[in-house]
Amino acid sequence: MTIDPLDPAGIDQVLTEEERAVRETVRDWCADRVLPHVGDWFERGELPEARALAKELGGIGVLGMHLTGYGCAGMSAVAYGLACLELEAADSGLRSLVSVQGSLAMYAIHRHGSEQQKQQWLPPMAAGEAIGCFGLTEPDAGSDPASMRTRATRDGDDWVLTGRKMWITNGSIADVAVVWAQTDDGIRGFVVPTGSKGFAAPLIKHKGSLRASITSELVLDQVRLPADAVLPEVRGLRGPLSCLNEARYGIVWGALGAARSCYAAALEYAGGRTQFGSPIASYQLTQAKLAGMAVELAKGGLLALHLGRLKDRGLLAPEQVSLGKLNNVREALEICRAARTILGANGISYEYPVMRHMANLESVLTYEGTTEMHTLVLGQALTGHAAFRH
After folding, report:
1. Which fold has domain 132-229?
2. Domain with residues 238-383, CATH architecture
3. Where in the chain are the domains?
4. Backbone angle region of 163, left / alpha / beta, with phi > 0 → left and psi within -120 to 50 → alpha
5. Are strands 278-279 and 176-183 parallel, antiparallel or unpaired?
6. β strands within the chain, DSSP E
7. In a structure prediction context, what are the per-residue pLDDT tens digits for the chain, which is 390 residues long?
8. Contact 207, 170 (CB under 8 A)
9. pTM
10. What is the distance between the alpha carbons of residues 301 and 322, in angstroms, rounded to a whole number?
């Protein structure tokens, strides 16, 4: 038997038929709708078809696909992970759109919302007819969300929200925002229709990463909401952190998609690029790079699959998600950088996907928890000592 150079560990052989079908559906859609255009979108710094793409993604069932009911597909965690991998193999911005929609905004409503909130928002969001965003990070509160300044106060039966959120994917095109704010009763989540008076979502420009993605600031200036806008089932940081854990799980898989794309580009390039009379794939140093990339890609894939199987059995701990994100994003970046060296000067050209994925992964490395935070999460789990404030 010979191994598949793009799947040297043979992970495909242990996937179910349904899991492979999900992967192929998403891969084919990306090949048709995203890959021919995404290099141009990235260079221009825009995602011009975001709402149309969201409807198509809803049509193939990937928005909130790991949730059940309310129009959601109810797929396995592994199937969702494979979808994230294929989406990020196209572009991290596309996977971010899906992650924020399904694992942050929809998950928050699905897990912590009222029945009325679920009925109102989840079916159109699953179909891609309504787009959601998730407002937690602030200009001065990133890794320490407990220090957020956005505040919600009671005024009769209403809530009034004031504050700012930063680096919000989907913000400028969203129909609904899940916003976390300080209250007299601790941190609470609010379902905020973006048409509310006092709500604005200016686009963030001049990005060097995630350029084919809509990133915004949220400005809440005395936004008045009815009493039932609050998420009733959770108080404190447990709410937003539970959502972030869902999104981080998708990143464990997604980062491998960016890495696979760069590895595949390097493998093909090495076979066709001739120097000193031979393809550079025939030289030992190039083979050492390719072998190292293949090993880390295989290890990351096996780790993602194992964590996915644990999640499907209800056995996945948050610290294990930190382990997966810390390892897989770090190694994906190294794979992309090694691919760039194999392509030489061509590695910086947008005719190839390598530099685009490298730039995107610099954002993936620090969003949904920085390397430092995930290291300390693991450190606390290993030693029993919290070192976040030392």
Report:
1. Butyryl-CoA Dehydrogenase, subunit A; domain 2 (2.40.110)
2. Up-down Bundle (1.20)
3. 11-126, 132-229, 238-383
4. left
5. unpaired
6. 68-69, 72-73, 132-135, 151-155, 158-169, 176-183, 186-193, 199-200, 215-225, 274-275, 278-279
7. 789 999 999 999 999 999 999 999 999 999 999 999 999 999 999 999 899 999 999 999 999 999 999 999 999 999 999 999 999 999 999 999 999 999 999 999 999 999 999 999 999 999 999 999 999 999 999 899 999 999 999 999 999 999 999 999 999 999 999 999 999 999 999 999 999 999 999 999 999 999 999 999 999 999 999 999 999 999 999 999 999 999 999 999 999 999 999 999 999 999 999 999 999 999 999 999 999 999 999 999 999 999 999 999 999 999 999 999 999 999 999 999 999 999 999 999 999 999 999 999 999 999 999 999 999 999 999 999 999 886
8. no
9. 0.95
10. 15
Terminal alpha carbon distance of the chain: 53
List the catalytic residues: 368
Retrieve residue 71's tokens: 């129009």
Burial code (b: 16+ CB inside 10 Å, e: under 16) for 241-257 equals eebbbbbbbbbbbbbbb
8 Å CB contact between 306 and 324: no
CA distance 137 to 363: 14
Scan for tokens 């995630």, then name that residue. Answer: 210
CB-based contact 87:254 (threshold 8 Å):
yes
Cβ atoms of 171 and 162 within 8 Å: the answer is no
> What number does CATH give the domain 11-126?
1.10.540.10
188 - beta bridge partners?
Answer: 181
Q: How far is residue 132's CA from residue 191's CA, in Å, rounded to a whole number?
A: 10
